[in-house]
Amino acid sequence: MRPRHIGSESDDYPVGLLDLEHPPPVWALGELGESKTVAVVGTRRCTRYGVDLAESFGSAIARSGWSTVSGLARGIDTAAHRGCLRSSGHAVAVLGSGIDVCYPKENEGLYKRILDLGGAIVSEYPEGTPPDKWRFPARNRLIAAMSEAVVVVEAAVTGGALITARLAAEIGRPVFAVPGDVDRTASEGCNRLIRDGAFPVLGSSDLIEELSLILGPPAKGRRSPVPVDGVLISDLPQLWGLTVTEALIKLGRLEVEGQVRRQGDLIVPA
User: Could you list the residue range(s) of the whole structural domain that residue 66 is in?
Assistant: First the structure.
């Protein structure tokens, strides 16, 4: 799979980026898709509460047939992508480095699973560009513009998540935020967003209900939980980010639901 360089005049340019004052050309790996898009962002210094919520949001968005956009950073971004992929959803990771430079390095498995399940990796930087700190605030404007709504799970009063929320509001994207304890650093940014007009969201079902008013009803069809050309049974745990036992349980459920079938040791879409 080779990266594609896409200019703003191209037919497959992410249409949301045209709302930016200066739409940049981007590099893309994988499939950007045509489904509605929701960004789930937050702090790297998150709590267990935030991780669990971000995973449930990513999973609920995937089950609704929408795409989850985030930045592949540690913390909330990672959890949102992980939840999306566990429900076989479409994910888009927007990097603050070259398209071939996975940062942080421990997310290389997640980077690969996003592509394996038909998602996309996007960056405005050419191959080999290092993840310099100053690139990430600039990256956040792409996350905001590529999404039709932005959800902030946990955020301090400074940091990338609030930058993304501010940029989203400036270009007319609705912003949602999870309320939290007033004395918790990881909730202070979200509480201020709500004070300033962001929509409070109280859980995954509440989020989907609110998003449905903006994006329309959830898509009825679900994406295939395995690549179109199939996957070996032994590779399912890595593909789905599960333990061997969890992957086999999920495989059995998908077979019963008629979503996949076996061809020897290969699992293919039904």
Answer: 4-215
CA distance 270 to 258: 6
**What does the alpha-carbon distance between residue 176 and residue 190 come to, in Å, rounded to a whole number?**
9
Peptide bond connecting 104 to the previous residue in cis, omega within 30 degrees of 0: yes
Task: Assign 178 to helix, strand or coil.
Answer: coil
- In tens, the pLDDT along 165-175 reads 999 999 999 99
From CA 105, how far away is CA 131, in angstroms rounded?
Answer: 11
Sheet with strand 266-269: strands edge to edge: 231-232, 266-269, 260-263
Q: Residue 132: is its pLDDT beyond 90? A: yes
Residues ≥6 apart with Cβ < 8 Å to 51: 75, 76, 79
The Cα–Cα gap between 226 and 112 comes to: 13
Based on the fold, state whether residues 143 and 239 are members of the same structural domain: no
Residues 246 and 191 occupy one common structural domain: no
- Assess contact for 93 and 62: CB atoms under 8 A: no
Spatial separation of the C-alpha atoms in residues 179 and 201, rounded to whole Å: 7
Q: Token pair of 11, please?
A: 């037919």
pLDDT, tens digit (0-9, with 9 covering 90-100), for 162-214: 999 999 999 999 999 999 998 888 899 999 999 999 999 989 989 999 999 99
Can you give the pTM of this predicted structure?
0.82
